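Dear colleagues,

For the upcoming journal club I promised to circulate an example of a predicted protein-ligand complex. I picked one with NAP because it came up in last month's discussion. The inputs are reproduced below in full, followed by the predicted structure.
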Amino acid sequence: MTVRVGILGATGAVGQRFIQLLDGHPTFELAALTASAESAGKTYREAAKWRVNTPIPDDVAEMTVGATTPADVPDDVDLLFSSLPSGVAADVEPEFLEAGYVVSSNSSNDRMAPDVPLTIPEINPGHLDLIEVQRDERGWDGALVKNPNCSTITMVPTLAALDQFGLEAVQVSTLQAVSGAGYSGVTSMEIIDNAIPHINGEDEKMETESRKLLGEFDGAEIDLHGMEVAASCNRIPTLDGHLENVFAETAEDVSPAAAAEAMREYPSVDLYSSPDQLIHVFEDFDRPQPRLDRERGDGMQISAGGIQTTADGVKYNCLAHNTIRGAAGASLLNGELLAEDGWI
Ligand code: NAP
C-alpha cells in the first residue's frame, strides 16, 4: 500500500532530515511540502538552505512549497509529518486535525496532553489506542501523535530494558549536540571552546516525558511511571548525537552483566525504519562517542556503554542521533506504526 505523505515545516533542520529519510522509502510517497509564508510559492531548492550530507533528491528540489494551511495540502495526502516551531505547531496542527489529517509531530506542544499518544514504537506502541479517546474528546477525524524530545528518546529505551529490575529513580546529565537547537539556535561565538550548562525547558521535558512513555495505558488514560527523574541538560560543541550519563536506582540488585544483557535483548519491532537491534551495548568504557557511534543503524540505533554498579543500581552512558532517532526518524517510525496498525 502506498501512503501519500506531506511535511509541515519542510525547509528546517528536521524537515530536511525527513526528506533525506523518505527518499527511497518503500511505502511513503512525498506529496506535499509546507513552510512559512516567506517560502510558500518557491521551489524547494529555492526555499531551503539545504545542509544535510546527501543531495536534495531531484524530484523534491522542483516541488513547490505550500503555505502551512490545510488549503495548500492535497486532500489525498494520508499522513503529515510536522517539524514546525512549537509555538506555530500549537496554532496550526489543530487546523489539520480538524480537517481530518493524521499528524505525526516532532514539536513539543501537547506531548504531555492526557489524550495525545507520546510514542516510541519499540517501547509503547499500545499507547496509540489513546487516539480513540482523543477523537471522542476533541471531535476531530484526524489524529495527533507525538514523538518525545531528542534527549528523552536517547535514554528511555535503556530505562525500558532496566524496568524489569524495578526502576525507582533516575538521574541523568546530558551532553547535547548543537543541531538539537536548530540551525540558528546557538551561535558559534556561544559554543566554540565552551559548554552551556542549561537548555531552556529541556530538564522538565526529560523528567515528564520519560514517565509518560514508560507509563501504562488502561484504556482511558496513561498512568505515569512511578520513578522519580531528575535531569540536568547541557549543550556542548558536537554537531550531532546526544550523549547522556544515566544513574538508575532499582529495587532489585542488578549486575553490569545483567543490565547489559537486558539492554541487548530488548526487542526491536518489524517496521521499515527500526534497527534490527534496538540497543547496542559496548564493552569498552570509552564508548559510545558521538562522532564514532551516532550513525549506527542508519542513525536509528541507541548505544550504551560503561555500565557499572552503584550503591542503588547502575550507572552507564547512552547515545542517539538527535535529528534522526531524536526527531525525523522518530516521527517517521511513528508514521510507519500508524500505517501498520491501520490508523491511516
Ligand atoms: P527550524 O530549522 O527552525 O525549522 C522550522 C521550520 O518551520 C521551517 O520549515 C520554517 O519555514 C517553518 N516555519 C517557521 N515559522 C513558520 C510559520 N509561522 N508558519 C509555517 N511554517 C513556519 O527548526 P527545527 O530544528 O527543524 O525544529 C523543528 C521542530 O522540531 C521544533 O519544534 C523543534 O523543537 C523540534 N525538534 C527539533 C530537534 C532537533 O534536533 N533539531 C529534535 C527534536 C525536536 P521557513 O524556512 O520558511 O522559515
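Two points we might discuss: The chain has a mean pLDDT of 97. The chain has two domains: 3-149+327-340, 150-321.

See you all on Thursday,
B. R.
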